[in-house]
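Instructor's aside before we start: the two examples that follow are unrelated to each other. I chose them only because their records fit on one page, so don't look for a connection. First example below.
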Amino acid sequence: MSALERIGAVLRGGQIDPALASPRAIAPLAEDRRRSVGARDLEEYAALVESDRAEASRLRSLVAVPETWMFRYPESFELLRARLLATGGAPFRALCIACATGAEPLSVAATAVASGIAPEAIEVTGMDPNPDALRQGRDAALGRMAARGGVPPWADRLVRVAADGTPTVAPEVRACVRFVEGRAPEDLPRPADGRFDAVFCRNLAIYLAPEARRAIGARIVELVRPGGMLFLGHAERLPHFGIEDAFRPADAGHPGAFAAERVDAAAPAAPAPASAAAWLPPRHAPPAPPAARRAPAPPQP
C-alpha cells in the first residue's frame, strides 16, 4: 500500500467520503502537511498520520474545509432568537458539531444572551477534532473577516467588529461556551448527559460517507429534546441523515434558516409547514385522498 493510500485509509476511518480521500484528491494536501511538519517523505508523513490523532485531525480539516464566520446564515439566528425570546429567559443548552474555530458557538451564545437569558443559564458546547481550531475558539481569536456578513443590531453590544472585519466577543458570551475535542459520531455527548435545546450540524454531511451521515443522524435524534431545534447547512437535507421522520421543517417565515424541529414521538404528527418542500423530497408529501381529488369545485358566489 502506498503512502497516500495509507493516509486515505486513515481519512476514511474518520468518516470522510472515499471520493475525497482518494490518493489523487489528497496528494497536494498531504504534501503541504508533510512540509509543515518536516517529514522527510510521504512514507514518514503517513506513519505520523497513522500514529498521531492530532495530525490526522489537522489533515482531515483540510479535506472537510473548516470555513466559518459569525452569524453565518443570519436567518438561523433570527429564528433562534425568536424561539428563545418566547421562553422568557429559560435555561438554554446547545451543541455545535464540527465547530471549526468557534465562530458558530460564539454566535449561538451571543444570540442567547441577547435574548435575555442569564449567561450562567447558557451552556453552548463547540466540538471539533482539530486541536488548533479549538485553541482559536477558546481564545476567541477569530481573525480578519470572521464577521464578513455583519452582526445583527441586537448583538452589536456583544460582538464588536473592527474595520478589518475582526470581531471582539464580549466576556459574558465567551463564558457561555466550552470547546471540546472530538469527532462525530463517536465522540458526541450521550443522552445521559442531558439533551440539547438546539444542535447545529452545518456543512458537515457534504464531506462524509453515507453511513457516517446516518450514524450522526441517529445520534442527533437522541440528543435533541422534543421541540428542540436542528440547524443544517444550505446543501443538506433531513434525508441525508435519515432523520426525516424525527424532525419537521421549522423555518416558515425564516427562509434560509435551514431549521427543523424535533418531533415528539408521543404526540400526534402535525402537518408540515409550507416550507417543507425545501427540506423533504416530493415522495414524502402525502397524496391527496381520493375523495378530495373527486370533489367538485364549490359554486362561485
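Example two begins here.
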Amino acid sequence: MTAMSTVALYQGTDRYQNVTNALTAIAGDVDWASKRRILIKPNFTSTVIPLAATHVEAVRAVLDFLKPRTTGRIVIAEGAGLRDTWEGFRNYGYLPLREQYGVELRDLNRDAWVTTTVYDQHLRPLTLRVARTVVESDLRISIGPPKTHDTVIVTLALKNLVMAALIRDERGPDGPAALAGPTRSRGSTLQAIARLAPRRVKGWPLIMWLKGRLIRRLIRSDKMLMHQGYPVINLNLFLLARFIPPHLAVLDGYQAMEGDGPNHGTAVDWRVALASADWLAADTVAAHLMGVEVQEVGYLDHCRRAGLGQGDLDRISITGNVPVAACRRVFQPSPTVEQQRRWRDPRVEALVTELVGGG
C-alpha cells in the first residue's frame, strides 16, 4: 500500500504568499541540498492568453523559496505547444528573472532529446522524443494553474510537465534573438482550423487519423502525436508519468480555469495554492477541489493503480490554513466532457493491468 502523503493547501488574497506558504509547509519532504539540476516547468499552453499560463509571481515565489535551500543550477524551461516559447517568456514577464535570480530560460522544443515508447490509436508502439533537460533534472518542479481540459477532463501538475517535455520541431533562433515579434506557427494554424470542427466529431477515429497525417506532413510535433484518442492519450500520459514524473508539484489556483480549457475557458477566482512532494497526491486533491475524483480521470486512475503516488484521499494529509470543504468548488467541465469520459477500453485496460502487475 502506498504510504501517506502530505499536500499543503493555502488560500489568501496574495498569490505570491499563497505559493510561499504552501511550499514552506512541505519543505521538510524534499532533500533540497542534494539537488544539482533543478527544472522549474511553468505552463505556456498559450503564449498570448495569460489565464492559460503560469503567472510569473508564482514562479518568483518558487525561486525565492529555493534560493536559501540549494546551490544547484536552476533552469526555467517550457516547450510551448503551438507558438514560440520565447514569446511566452516575453509576454508573461519572465525575461528579468535571468538577471534577478541567475537562472537560465530554455525552450524545450529546441533541446536535445532522448526517445521513449508509447502507443498509437491502434496500440502499436510509437516513438516520441523527450527533452533531455527534463529527463536529466534531479528536481523537476511543475508549476501551473489548475484547468479543465478538452481531452483528459483536467490538466494539473503531471500533464503540465510531460506534455511540454515532448519535442515540437519548428526551429529558429534561440534566446533573445527570437524575441523580435510574435510568430504564427503551423501548429497554431492547425489549432485554429481544428476549433472550427464540431466538438462531437473531434474524437472520431477518422478525425484522429486525419489529424495524425496532417501533423506528420506539416510539422513534427510529438506533443500532438500524443493525441491518439481518449483511451490512448490517458494510457500514454500514464507511461510518461513512469518515465519523467514531477518531483514537486505546485498548483497556483489564484486564478484557475473552467469550461473550455486549457486555453479558452473562463476564470475562476479561487485564491488557492497547493504543493506536495507527491505529484499524484497534489493532483488528486486539486481534482477533488474542482469536483472531479481521481477515478474519473483516466491517466490519474492508471497512476493511482500503479502506485506512482498517493491517489487515495483518505491517505493524504492536507495541511494549511483552510478546510477542504471551504474551497471545494465544482468547476464547469469542458463541453466535450461526455466524450472524454469514454477513456475506458478493454485493450488499454489489459495493457495497464500488465504494467501495474509488472511493477
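The first strand starts at residue 5 and ends at 11.
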